[in-house]
């Protein structure tokens, strides 16, 4: 059996596995897709101490660093069930069952898609999801934000400071964001808010050229010409498979304490799948390290 078994091979899982292995304990890592969301990222400019890199390059560096240690890497394996008996038993999609004294869940999250034509085709070519990451790429350009909740309005405020103009598209007749954010948004000169509109299509071939939306009251179709679209309709944690195993919040994020411990003794979690305030590479790595140190502390006490 393992001392520490990490589930998920993104920045959080890689960091957790390295921190665990450095304690000289038996460590394994199971990942459906080693690298995680980083693989879907083009330029990364906010991973402090690395001025600029690209997602696939960082993913490769993560894997090389992990493989530098005595860690069992089980890539292309999806976990489907976790149970605690005398030890944790992790069942994989392929039927194998792995045993471990502690487990660290770092299965990350995925952005909620708007599911309109053009979204998939133009991902990373004008369709973006992370204003902290990609905002600066749209300096001086016209962009749209889809979603009028807190994350959408925060994104719009953020982008208004960088870009030429921001159009916010909200499906409902009213914005759902906190009033203070709405007030701040309304004070900005270069933002247009469209309410009660349904995004119909993101247009463009090599890059985004516009957004087509339907006015839900009149049924009329309109086109806005712009170069970037930020989809801000939520982040979904990859925790469905843990239903009933541990405590999660309303959004499905795993609730952890300051050492990454979940509601189940010996079970830890880190990265985008936990109830952290922000989701970034640097933050995931930090919480992965925390969870590994938490798991080590648990092992020496039990
Ligand atoms: P993830 O990266 O989501 O990794 C999750 C891992 O778990 C993957 O290996 C996945 O295959 C695996 N997994 C999931 N379910 C299972 C299962 N059931 N069984 C086994 N394995 C499973 N952040 C920045 O700091 N800077 C940026 O510039 C930046 N740009 C971004 C651009 C895009 C397009 C996206 C999508 C995100 C960006 N982010 C950026 C956010 C950053 O990528 C995430 O915060 C970070 O990857 C989270 O790391 P994680 O390890 O928690 O999860």
TrEMBL record:
GO CC terms of this entry: cytosol; protein-containing complex
EC number annotated for this UniProt entry: 7.1.1.2
Keyword terms: Disulfide bond, FAD, Flavoprotein, NAD, Oxidoreductase, Redox-active center, Ubiquinone
Catalytic activity line of the entry: a ubiquinone + NADH + 5 H(+)(in) = a ubiquinol + NAD(+) + 4 H(+)(out)
Disulfide bonds: 130-133
Residue ranges of domain FAD/NAD(P)-binding in the record: 2-286
Binding site for FAD: 3-18, 262-272
Cofactor(s) recorded in Swiss-Prot or TrEMBL: FAD
Gene Ontology terms: biological process: response to reactive oxygen species
Any GO molecular function: NADH-dependent peroxiredoxin activity
Cofactor details (free text): Binds 1 FAD per subunit.
Assigned protein family: Belongs to the class-II pyridine nucleotide-disulfide oxidoreductase family.
Subunit structure: Homodimer.
Reported function: Transfer of electrons from NADH to the respiratory chain. The immediate electron acceptor for the enzyme is believed to be ubiquinone.
Name of the protein: NADH dehydrogenase
Span within the parent record: 207 to 508 of 508
